[in-house]
Write a structure and sequence with these properties.
By secondary structure, the protein is an alpha/beta fold. It is 38% helix and 23% strand. It has a 5-stranded parallel β-sheet, sandwiched between helices. It is globular and about 30 Å long.
Length: 116
């Protein structure tokens, strides 16, 4: 079973995504911002996928991805960004940092498997 970290400052968004993923058989950890997300990632090396909001307080999604790259390098971690807007600039920066996908909120409950 794959372990996924969901990072979003919206409690409702975290809970909704957590529920969708758990229904599909994934184990899910959650964090409310990038700083909390880093703590969870550093404590659990079994996390395979991060789904992170872009706009969050304390440490936004792009800063979070930059910190992951700086602290952990490449450990085979997949990162997908979740946002309410489409920005070619943000998406380009994310891709430079290794983000493998972008999903627009509200999330479609029929999204494709993120791990496979």
């Amino acid at each position: 079973m794959s372990l996924i970290l969901v990072v979003d400052d919206s409690v409702m968004a975290r809970k909704s995504l957590q529920s969708l993923l758990e229904e599909r058989g994934y184990s899910v950890s959650i964090a409310g911002n990038g700083r909390e997300g880093l703590e969870v990632l550093e404590a659990d090396p079994d996390i395979e996928l991060v789904v992170s909001d872009v706009h969050m307080p304390n440490m936004d999604g792009i800063e979070f991805v930059e910190a992951i790259a700086g602290r952990m390098g490449s450990r085979g971690l997949k990162i997908v960004m979740l946002t309410t807007e489409h920005s070619a600039i943000l998406e380009g920066r994310g891709k430079e940092l290794g983000v493998v996908g972008w999903m627009i909120k509200p999330l479609n409950p029929n999204f494709p498997d993120l791990i496979e």
